[in-house]
Each structure stands twice: as structure tokens, then as C-alpha cells.
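Interim report, section 4.2 (structural modelling).
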Amino acid sequence: MAPSAATLRTTPLHQTHCRLGARMVEFGGWNMPVQYSGILEEHRAVRTRAGLFDVSHMGRIVVRGREAGRLIDTVTAGPGSALKPGQARYSALLYDHGGFVDDILVHKIAEDHFFLCVNASNQDKDYQRIAEHNTFDAVLEIPDQAQLAIQGPFALAALQKLTPVDLSAIGYYHFVHGGLLCGVSAEIARTGYTGEDGFEVYIPSSDAPRIWDMILEAGAEFGIQPCGLGARNTLRLEAAMALYGHEIDASTTPFDAGLGWIVDLKKTEFLGRDALVKQKQRGVTRRLTGFEMKGRGIGRDGYEVLIDGVPMGWVTSGGPAPTLNKNIGLCYLPQALSEPGRTMHVMVRGTPVEAVTVATPFYKRGK
Amino acid sequence: VPEYPEDLRYTKEHEWVRIEGDAGTVGITFHAQKELGDIVYIDMPKIGTVVERGKSIGSVESVKAVSEIFSPVSGEVTAVNELLATAPEKLNVDPYGVAWLVKMRLTAPAELAQLLSAADYRKFVEAE
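Predicted structure of the assembly:
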């Protein structure tokens, strides 16, 4: 049974969302805005102007200690201690069998200080997994922070009005620790989940409503709009970014999901490494593949995929791509059948509808 | 847009029907389109399809989700709204006007007694 509204967690911006007339939904145990003005309009705002998202439901775990880097190296599939201070990296916590505990962002503040951004519904098991392997005397903390994403071609211009930090000097997947934003100390990261340029900022919860309002005011001249999880999903799908519970889960490895690039097999030891090495030797059998609908209909999560009339895979995410004016999706197919240009059919409520495999990402912003 | 026009009859699945003699025009309600959000696809039955009350006659698909349309009355489909094939977003704008879904010839007019009035439907939505 779905949790009732009373048991759902709310972000520090709950009142703000209600005041703005957002439609609220349950997501990962949280009561979150799915849309304000409408998903398509918010999607376009991010592609052409700027959008502001409350993503405070995302989990945050701070890791401190002299050997914090070694703990990160052990529990994540990608680099930890090898990152430079101020660098962020898309990475994963894996089970011993190679499946995802979670996909995460690792931020290295200093040799003895990291923070992880993790999925809302996975924070508890992530924390537990890390704590279980903490033989390094590291201290784990869950900070009382809100997280906002400012995304779009004018995100930088809008946010720059509120901080003395030179935002243009922050490289992609880098961040500034303790930068002043609206007068308070924040993490300001050039990261995002939309396929656009933009920032994610981590701020004290108590300052979140004030900073949210100030960003909307600063961005008004650029046409900024508050955006909900609906647009966040259509944007990430166009950019072919994975969503936990859809493209990736405990039964999926990074190689299956086309995320081999996040894995650093040169690290001699990390959780899940042995399984990944074995999988590599055996060969990857299925592959996350992009598709475009040719016939009328949308292939949605869980729908069956047929090739030459034979069930061969399933859709993990699907929907309209507002920027491309097409219906797109991601599906798992046998590796040998996953190259772009192959005709396939998606079973849309009992009817096979034609589609074709395509290269991803579906959308890539111009430089 | 009025949210609950007085001259229509409603279902708890958020369809409406406008009765003129033995003909009925069917659509989805203001509340339904609002819940669905931006509508991108509508699947409708072929002309001549014979449907029973409460059975699916198609689906409405928004950016987020798919929702079945259940026929509020029994009858034969005499027209489908071709406008919606190319302009499904009209359902978000004018669900009781240009964005009707199908027209039907009613075969069991006695069923109409089981549909909700505007006032009862409003009460149902507000309590939901």
C-alpha cells in the first residue's frame, strides 16, 4: 500500500510549493511537486531559459576522517581518493554481485572530507552499506540541508547575481565548498540531471525558502520557472540519464546499463569488483538501448519489446521528448540486437507498435 | 471553463455525456484532464464499435501516465473527434467543448438514471 500523505516526508520548501500551486505527489517516500504550470512548459523553460527544482528529497551523506578517501574507494565503483578537491564524479555503490545499491554523486571537498548525493529512497540502505564497510574510522553524517537545482542556458546568469563566487570558473562536474550564496555558506556544484548547463546547490534547510524566492526573483529577467519532478523526468530521459528503479537496480550492473565508464577497474579492490571482472570476461549479454516510436503510441516502463515477433526485452522508461517532438524510451535488449537502426515493436496495451533503436543521448545541448 | 456544466451527466471514472434524444456525446471531465496534466495522445474506438456501459473505449495519455476511458453509456459509436488525433492538447483547454471524444447512439437509455448530476459529481470530486 502507498504511504498516506500523513506519513510522507516533506522538504523545507513544502509551504513554498503549496503557495505556488504545485501539484504534489508521492515520490520515494516524499511529498514532492510534480508540476507547477505544466510539465511541457517547464521542460521548455529549462531547455531555452532556466528552471528551478527542489531536489531536497535526494539523500546526502558526509564522510569525514583521515582515511575517508579509502572508505570511498572501497564502497564506490569509481574514483574517490584519486579525485581532486572540488571535483565531483558520477559513481555507484554496488552489491557484491555487481548490481546497483544506488547510483550516486561523489564530491571530494578535501582528502579527509567527502559528500555523497544519493537517491531519496536509497539513502538508508546506502548509509548501511557504507557503515558496514567502514573499517577506516570515518565519521558518517546526514547533514540538515536542502538541495536546489538551477538548470538551463540562463542558470549561470541568474545564480551569479546571488553569489560572489565566479560561477563561470567552476568546471563541469566541479564544485565550490563553502561558497557564499545569498549570504550563507553553500556547496555550489556544476552538476545536473537535465542535459543542460546548470548548478546544484546544497544549503542549510532553514535558509531554503528565502534562497528559493531569491533565485526565482534573480532569474525572473531570464524567464526562470519553478519546475517539478515531471519535467525533471522528461529532461533526464531526453539526456538518456539513468533513473534508479527503472534503468538500474539491484539486478543491473553498470555494464548492462552502458555505464562502464563510471567503473574504475584499475582500483584493485572495491565492492562488486570481482563480479564486474567476471562479467567482463564472460561478456555482457544485455544492453540498455534507446528507441524512438515510429507508430502511434508511447512505450512505457515495463512494456514488452519484440524483435521479429519474439519477446526480447522490456522498456525501462518511455515518454514524449518535448524538445525532439518524438516519443522515445530506453529498453533492455540482448547485446547482439542493440545496435542503432534495428526495427522493434513495443507492446502498447496489447498492440505491437513499431519503433526503431537509436543512439543515445536523444538530446545533446549545443556548445 | 466551467468545471461542472449543469447540462451534462457524469461518471465516477471522470467521463461526461451530453444527451440529445437517443444520441450522446462523450468526453472526459475538467477534473480528469487536470489530474492527467499535459495530454499527448488519445486512442479512440472505430466508428461502428458497439460498447457496453463501463467498458473501455480507448485511452488518454499524458506526459506522465495512461488512463483508460470507460464508456458512460451503452451504444454504438457514430463519430470520433478527429481533431484530437493532431491536437490532443485541446483536451487540456476545452474538455466539454471542441475536445469531445466520441458520439454514440444510445441503446439502453434507462442507464442514464445511474449517472451523476453535476452537483453529485462535484461532491464526489471534492471528497476524493
